[in-house]
Amino acid sequence: MDVQALAIFVQAQAAGSIAEAARRLRITSLTGARRLAALEEELGVRLLQRTTRSLSLTPEGEAFLPHAMALLEADLAARESVRGAAVGVTGLLRVTTSAAFGRQVLTPLLASFMADHPDVRVDLIMTDAVLDLVAEGIDLAVRVGNPGESSLLSSRVAENPRGLYAAPSYLAGRKAPDRLADLALHDCLALTGRARWTFRAGGLAKHVLVEGRFTASSIDGLSAACVAGMGIGLFSHWAVREDLEAGRLLPVPLVDAEAEPLDIWVLHPSRRLTPVKVRRLIAYLRDRVQPQPYKPSIG
């Protein structure tokens, strides 16, 4: 049975399109359609119901899908069993993460990973939306904060300390907050629809509703607003590291509380066999993603 035809079938049902399946597999749409037609002819059934606007599984396709996935996993296991641990990673890795984390942290790490593994290709999808990894054909997601999805395999990569920061222009002429209660007197920069900040005080979690005149849908937008002097922001250090080093932002420590850290996690679809390329990237990130809290230089 043609393994690539099986891959086209699995990817097509996930993506909802043979053309998108072919794109993910780096083949032409015509080749994908022909291989899928040959698979259906070999099996003697139609696996996918095609219309001009949609694609769906037939009853026979629904019955065959888990077997096709098992055959692909068996093929992958067979190939990896003879490669040996010393063989480099090959093939396409599709990875997703948030725009800010991708730009500032993940892209440089992926560049280093690709230099170590010259036969690997990476497609990085940077979006603040939470994508369906299976439907989008994505191998790995890197997310900041509790992953929450029980259907995915998750692994904590690193701690991620956070803190309060503000621009010198915002702090000029006003008293910086010293205590958690003082935040009520300040413009706080929160993500759209998420105006609750979490802190640790006396070993307990405290949730604080914050208010401000400006909200944004991305960390990049909030950090830009913070640099512009529009308020106090709660950020991971990696998100504002360059602005801190340049003096465009200053830390705003509290004496009675610390910002709750949001750990960095990797998530990938649940399979009987996790591909070597995914395992290697997870290990690579676990070794290298080590965000540290901001410590001003002395001298």
Descriptive overview:
The chain has 299 residues and is of the alpha/beta class. It has three domains: 3-83, Orthogonal Bundle (Arc Repressor Mutant, subunit A); 91-160 and 263-288, D-Maltodextrin-Binding Protein, domain 2 (3-Layer(aba) Sandwich); 162-259, D-Maltodextrin-Binding Protein, domain 2. It contains ten helices and 15 strands. It has helices at 3-15, 18-24, 29-43, 59-83, 99-116, 133-136, 168-171, 219-227, 237-245, 276-288, and strands at 48-50, 55-57, 91-97, 120-126, 140-144, 152-158, 162-166, 188-191, 196-201, 204-209, 215-216, 232-236, 250-251, 258-259, 264-269. The protein has a five-stranded mixed sheet, with helices on one face. Strands 11-8-12-7-13 form a five-stranded mixed sheet. The chain is elongated and about 75 Å long. It starts with a helix and ends in an 11-residue tail after the last helix. The mean pLDDT is 86.
